[in-house]
């Protein structure tokens, strides 16, 4: 029997080429309008409570500072002058782990000129010493608080700053503790 319609490879290739051209000629149309917003889903179940975090480091809120104080120096029998400021918060723990800074305002309350102790200028020196309950200062001059006769304002007032252990060590910003303005700004001290 003779086949009248032969199906050859060349016919198959023509059909394949035609199908490819037909599919390739189709293009995507413009997007249709957006559909309506669906309903809000139900709220999921509350998850388990997480473990409590570690207690944070102490902040500058733990720093203690005094007002500007009037301090009297008394003459010592062996020479020099001596003063004491009683402060119960100067503890063994503070002395072991913390920091104490003492500042002297050589100016007035209105026009401050503040220096950090210990202080040495020319022949004048002032050195602080600490023990539980006390801040002591020794000097070779009488550097106690006085009232300026011309202005009537007090000069040579003292202030101390107590920084508990942990606070100083955690400070990410390095400040110069001998620069009163830096310390005042960093700790938010009020004059």
From TrEMBL:
Annotated spans, Disordered: 31-55
Domain of life of the organism encoding this protein: Bacteria
Protein name as annotated: Collagen-like protein
Organism phylogeny: Bacteria, Pseudomonadati, Bacteroidota, Chitinophagia, Chitinophagales
């Amino acid at each position: 029997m003779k086949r009248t319609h032969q199906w050859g490879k060349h016919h198959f290739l023509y059909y394949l080429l035609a199908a490819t051209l037909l599919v390739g000629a189709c293009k995507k149309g413009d997007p249709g309008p957006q559909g309506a917003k669906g309903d809000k889903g139900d709220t999921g179940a509350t998850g388990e409570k997480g473990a409590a975090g570690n207690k944070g480091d102490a902040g500058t809120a733990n720093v203690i500072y005094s007002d500007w104080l009037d301090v009297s120096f008394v003459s010592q029998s062996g020479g020099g002058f001596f003063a004491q400021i009683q402060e119960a918060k100067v503890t063994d723990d503070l002395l072991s782990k913390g920091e104490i800074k003492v500042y002297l305002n050589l100016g007035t309350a209105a026009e401050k000129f503040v220096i950090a102790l210990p202080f040495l200028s020319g022949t004048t020196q002032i050195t602080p010493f600490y023990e539980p309950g006390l801040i002591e200062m020794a000097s070779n001059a009488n550097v106690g608080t006085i009232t300026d006769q011309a202005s009537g304002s007090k000069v040579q007032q003292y202030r101390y700053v107590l920084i508990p252990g942990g606070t100083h060590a955690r400070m990410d910003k390095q400040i110069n503790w001998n620069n009163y303005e830096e310390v005042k700004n960093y700790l938010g001290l009020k004059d």
